[in-house]
Every structure is written in C-alpha cells, then in structure tokens.
Design goal:
The complex is a heterodimer of chains A (217) and B (349). Chain A is of the alpha+beta class and 217 residues long. Helices cover 33% and strands 12% of the residues of chain A. In chain A, helix 5 crosses helix 8 and helix 6 (148-161) packs across helix 8 (185-195). Chain A is elongated, with a radius of gyration of 22 Å.
C-alpha cells in the first residue's frame, strides 16, 4: 500500500490545529454531502444478495454501503440486534454467520452473499426460550438490557466453542468482546456458566441459608 | 460513508488487476476497511472482495508454516499445527481484538491494519502537519503539538524524531520477529518479500507504508518453523486485561544450548510505527548465558534509540520490563498453555 490516503482530504483543514480540531465533531452529514458531491452513486453501488436469515431464504436489493446490522434493523425491522458503538468496540451487534459469532456493524452485507445469518430473533423455539435466554432472566444478567442480545449471541457461541465451562477466567476472556455499561458482568458470567453446565442452575439472588442477624451484619 | 461500487471478481488475477489500494481497495473481513470507511478516512471509489478468491488453508511445506491470506485469525489460532505447538503464534492471535473480530479478520488484512491514533482516525486532524513535527523541538513555532497533544497511540521507537502513529497489531510482531515472509500476487506473477522489508517506517507520512504495489495482493504468509518458535511467548501489557491494544508487547523465542542461548527472536509491539524486529536485542542474547543481566542488556539494547513524545516516557521502562519478563518466563517456565495465559492476564502467575 502506498499509503497516500489521508493527505488530500485534510488539505483544507491544514493549520487548524489539533486542539481546535479535537474540540468538536464536525456534523457527519455535511462532510458526506461535500465529499459525495463530485462522486454520484453509480448503478454498481447497488447490489443484490441472498441470505438464509434465521432459517428463511431471503433476497435483498441493497446499497453497497449497507452493513449487516443496518440490513437487519432498517430493511427487515428486526431490531433485536442492537447498534451500540457501530465501530466494532462493544459487541452489542453480535450475530452468527455460518455458525460463528461476528460483529454485524463491521460486516459489509454485500460480502456475505449466500451465507447463513442467525440473530437473537432466531434462537428460541417458538415460545420456548433458548436456555441462555432463560438463564439471563433467572440470573438477572442485565440492567438496561441493551447489550443483552449481543451478550446472548456471543454467549451461545462461547458455550459451543467450549470456552464457557472450564475456568471462569477463560469464560471472561472469551466474552471480553461484549461490553456492558451497567457492568452486569458477574450475573452474565453466572448465566453463561450455568447454561454451559459449569455451575448448578439457580437464582444467584436467592440465598441457600436463611437470613439472620449475623448474615446481615 | 461515500458511495462506492462493489465487485466480486471470480479469480485472484482479475481482483489484482482491479485493485490499486487507493481508489480501488481490497476487502476481506472488513474489520479495518469498513470501520475507516464509516469515518470517511478511507474513501475508495470501488471495493473489491478478495476473500473468496484467496486460500484460507494452513499447512506445512519445506519446514515452513504456510498460511492462506484469507485464513481468519480464529482459524489459525485453533489450527492443529498451531494450537499447542507454536505458542507465540497462537498467543499473538488470541490476545488480539475479540472473539467476534478474530472470526472475521483475515491474516492478510490483519497485517495491514492501520494505526489507531486519533490523528489518523479523525478526518479533521491535520495529519500532514503532524508528521513533519519534531518531537519536543525547541524551534517549534506553535504549541499545538506540545502541551495537549494526544500522544497515547503514537510511536516511541523508530519514529525518526517525529510524531507518527503506532502500529497497533499483535500477530505482525510475531511475524517479523520470527522471520516471516509474504507472497504477493499480481497479474504479472508472484514475488516473495520478507516481512521485515515489507513494512517501511514513515518518511514524511503519519504512518507506515508497505512494499505492496498497486495490483498486488497478499496471497500467502510463510513462517519458518524454527526451534525458537516452539519455545516462545507473546507477552502483552495493556490498560485492561482483555480486548485492548498493547501499551507494550513482546514476541520472544529462545533456543537453549545448555545454559547458553543458541538462538533468539525478539519483536516489539505497541511501540513503533511498524511491527518491530529488534536485531539489537537478539544480538545481545545469542551466545550468552540466559541470566537476568543478559536479559537486561538485551532490553536496554532494544530501547537504546527510543525517542518518546512528551507523555509517553513511561513506555521506555515499561517496554524494557516487558522484554525482561517475557524472556524470564520462557527461560523459567517454558511455553505457557492457555490456562496459564488466562491466569497471567488476570493478575495471577
């Protein structure tokens, strides 16, 4: 790569100064419009792809820029998959492609033509929840719940990969791609490890011994 | 994101002929490209999908580990030729990014990941100005690059006295340290380039360049299966125990002859604008007794030319201690298994 990128686009801002530039984020739409003015979408910026989405074959006519998370949420109105950071840092958008957990926000939909996508909407058996969904309810493994679909999709893969049932350190390591701003990590870990069979199924909030003056003090 | 045309060529030769790495960029996993296109930092007119026309196989050939460029980080880390056999290779893969990203990112793309510095990732940053700015220079005409400069992801080693972006990757550190080679394909045929020559330190630019020419695509990675590769470690120091870029990292391998070091490999991450091979550290190790004193000499040799921007001075002793500790672990405990690695990552052992 000749690494010539990044010079021309910055010429007009030369001399602005780092401190000033860092003080605010320029409105993205304005930049898009300015840059796109000389570069009209061509017919080839539209693509047609076929996916097996939660077991059903579907075809999509999409803009080439469409990421998988946008295809799910905007085109299919499947809003279970959450858009958190939209830059591959938080894991809220985790789905499975061909059985492997990936980030749908960094997946250009055009690149997965013909592949199988599984989302949070596709893991229950009708009204019967997936065991990990059940465990999240039982263990209260969330507060606001925004990261939960990503945690559950990542957790299902983590269990399948064999990283959830050994040490809790290993489980934590292999779940580190999913952030939780409410920091519900202890209960997420318990839900994951109960589902993986590493810990007995129970509600971590229920004490096994009676509450006494001594246990409260 | 700027509109672009999308193409899926049916052969590698066709793909190569279309790709110039400027207006027509290659996409495989997309973990770097899609991210930077959303930020309008990269604005290709066309995007060429290469994952399906590249091999993703892993095999041994002539005492070399041969990796197809489309192999994902996860698949290489879990491959029977790597898992349990080549510790530093597995460790520099599984300590990078997150499980989701490792399932997506291909090795070819991973080698080319861009600096994470805000001066590259923000389109308002006057990067050109930055790259010619001398570190802590007395003749600086303004103070915008002195106090308040965001230095956290800038290079402290091999920066030629300039503010340049740090190379953030992990696997490439191992790849240069252990003498990896790249097979580059083009419509004219193939050529092989040593990883140590592939990466070129910035000269007048904010970050590294590579030997990759327009119409060339990384086709294959080759890693010699040396004795040092089997007795090796990747030690990564970061601000949280997982899913973070390295503050300093070290790929080391030792081949012992009694208590003397017969062969050594040392690579450094999180410090330089390119994945850093420390020939100086290796020279200080080979033929010597594997003592703490020898290790300290190697660490000092590796960082002798460090030139940290203001605020990054801590990285010099941090890097030295990382090198010494990595060498001690290989000497005293030998290769670590995953369980020992997690224990270490979480502050035990």
């Amino acid at each position: 790569m000749t690494n010539s990128d990044g010079v021309r686009r910055r010429d007009f801002l030369k001399g602005v100064g780092a401190a000033a530039a860092a003080s605010g984020i320029v409105v993205a739409e304005d930049k898009d419009h300015a840059a796109a003015a000389g570069q009209k979408p061509t017919s080839r910026s539209k693509v047609t792809i076929a996916l097996t989405l939660n077991g059903k074959k579907k075809s999509f006519d999409i803009d080439s820029r469409t990421t998988l998370v946008d295809l799910l949420r905007e085109n299919e109105q499947m809003t279970g998959t959450k858009k958190g950071c939209d830059q591959g840092a938080c894991g809220a958008c985790t789905v499975h492609i061909n059985g492997k957990r990936v980030l749908s926000c960094l997946t250009l939909a055009a690149t997965i033509d013909g592949e199988e996508v599984l989302t949070i909407e596709g893991i229950s058996d009708g009204e019967t929840l997936h065991p990990l969904q059940d465990a999240f309810l039982r263990c209260d493994a969330y507060q606001c719940g925004y990261c939960a679909p990503g945690q559950i999709m990542s957790g299902i893969a983590c269990i399948k990969e064999g990283h959830a049932a050994k040490s809790s350190e290993e489980a934590r390591e292999w779940m580190s791609g999913n952030l939780c701003r409410c920091s519900a990590y202890p209960n997420i870990l318990v839900a994951l490890r109960q589902t993986a069979g590493a810990e007995p199924i129970s509600d971590p909030a229920i004490r096994t011994s009676p509450v006494t003056k001594e246990t409260l003090s | 994101m700027i509109p672009f045309s999308y193409e899926e060529p049916q052969s590698l030769a066709t793909a190569c002929s279309k790709i110039d790495h400027r207006d027509a960029m290659a996409i495989a996993g997309g973990t770097t490209l899609v991210d930077l296109m959303k930020l309008n930092v990269l604005t290709p007119k066309s995007v060429i999908h290469v994952r399906k026309v590249l091999s993703s196989s892993v095999e041994t050939r002539d005492d070399q580990l041969v990796i197809g460029a489309a192999c994902t980080m996860a698949n290489l880390a879990d491959h029977p030729l790597v898992n349990g056999k080549l510790p530093v290779v597995r460790q520099s893969l599984i300590l990078a990014a997150s499980p989701q990203i490792r399932n997506m990112a291909t090795l070819g793309g991973n080698l080319l990941q861009r600096t994470r510095s805000a001066y590259y990732r923000h389109t308002d940053m006057p990067v050109e100005h930055e790259s010619t700015q001398k570190i802590n220079s007395a003749d600086s005409d303004g103070d915008e690059f002195g106090e308040g400069v965001e230095t956290s992801l800038l290079a402290v080693l091999g920066n030629n006295g300039k503010l340049v972006g740090m190379y953030p990757g992990d696997f490439a550190v191992t790849f240069v340290a252990f003498g990896g080679q790249l097979v580059l394909a083009s419509p004219d045929g193939e050529r092989t380039v040593a990883a140590r020559d592939f990466y070129q330190a910035p000269e007048g630019s904010f970050q590294y360049t590579t030997a990759l020419k327009p119409n060339e695509v990384i086709k294959e990675l080759r890693l010699p299966m040396t004795e040092t590769l089997k007795n090796s470690l990747y030690l990564k120091i970061r601000e949280r125990s997982s899913y973070a870029f390295a503050l300093a990292s070290c790929s080391v391998g030792l081949h012992m002859n009694g208590d003397r070091i017969a062969a050594a490999n040392v690579g450094l991450g999180g410090l330089a604008p390119i994945p850093w091979h420390s020939a100086e550290a290796e020279q200080a190790l080979v033929g010597e007794i594997a003592s703490d004193e020898t290790f300290a000499r190697a660490a000092n040799a590796a960082l002798a030319d460090a030139n940290p921007p203001s605020g990054l001075e801590f990285k010099v002793p941090l890097a030295k201690n990382t090198i010494v500790r990595a060498l001690q672990i290989v000497r005293d405990r030998g290769p670590l298994n995953d369980e020992q690695l997690w224990a270490m990552q979480h502050g035990r052992g």
